[in-house]
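pasting Adenosylmethionine-8-amino-7-oxononanoate aminotransferase for the record, 426 residues
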Amino acid sequence: MRNDELLALDRAHVWHPYGPMPGRTDPLVVASASGVRLRLAEAAEGRDELIDGMSSWWSAIHGYNHPVLNEAVRGQLDRMSHVMFGGLTHEPAVRLAARLVEITPEPLRHVFLSDSGSVAVEVAVKMCLQHWRSVGRPGKQRLLTWRGGYHGDTWQPMSVCDPEGGMHELWSGVLQRQVFVDAPPVAYEESYAELLRTEIARHADELAAVIVEPVVQGAGGMRFHDPAYLKVLREACDAHDVLLVFDEIATGFGRTGTLFAADQAGVSPDVMCVGKALTGGYLSMAATLCTSRVADGISQGEVPVLAHGPTFMGNPLASAVALASIDLLLSRDWAVDVKRIEAGLRDGLAPVADLPGVKDVRVCGAIGVVQLDHDVDMAAATRAAVRAGVWLRPFRDLIYTMPPFVTGDEDLARICAGVHAAAAAG
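structre below
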């Protein structure tokens, strides 16, 4: 199909994420991808190949077309591509669940597999609500979180995204009213820690859980905070009989410099959500892990089952490539690569701070963020990055990068140059 024909059909029929229908700008058509490069079907801004600075929305940590992950999918495809998970099981899903229990913080023991991060959060919330109903405390049905968060686009996750200025502000007054505290400061402040303790204590009788993104708040604003706040949350939740949920969908599998962001605080939640990099960007899959306390509470209720069961739950193809991706990550010194990327981002993005309109430049692990003092001119910033040979996806007042862990130093420098160009144009 010619590129213009494909784009005409795209405009007529395809609804892209966070976009109008029909679209107002044509997306770039990707013909193939390998390593850290996206090859375009037709050159844009003089470039027919772009370095991916986004890991395809933070998932493709090993890059593209990786032989180990390709073989995992091919091998499983020859055995079976899918089988229902109700009443049946299979080796890839069982081995994946066991591997997740092995590498996540104790005492997370039980794994519910789903098909997207938003659904993983839905399941986490359902687990917490059903736990309290099952143990005779149905009044515990609200969630506490801090502002600046993002947990997905389905119903319950939207209710704990920032209700002011976020992409889900449209649904204020329709979504359940949750308990919000101020966004966490970057550095530890005892006054903020005391605010967390006070609000959890004040609402304890109605709180099913506290849910946060640990260390890094993702699509809600790309903000970083001291891991010590996670200890404060753990202690306050224990003191007031409230469950604690960590949404590690964006931060899991090494992105912040530790395998999971929770590791930086040395604490474990009652429920943890993972996704995105789980399959190395190959197939859609997520998981919700919980402790035996949560699972046992549900099992003793009037309805002793978790009433949730996606059609593609535990999909064998996704399970096989997820297991291969985890093993691939842990087989190499991924932490050294993340530290190398972190150092490269700090050095490469430092000059961006001197540009007019730049409010802040910050780096955490393999995450680099430029915050402007105004909303990004997304079209201009994207064009500038593409001219520099880099794919970025700015939003709101942010131009950021989360490169694959296999990104070399030369390509990393080009990504930083692309961020610089986007910030200058945006």
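The two ends are 33 Å apart (CA to CA).
Residues 117-134 form the longest helix (18 residues).
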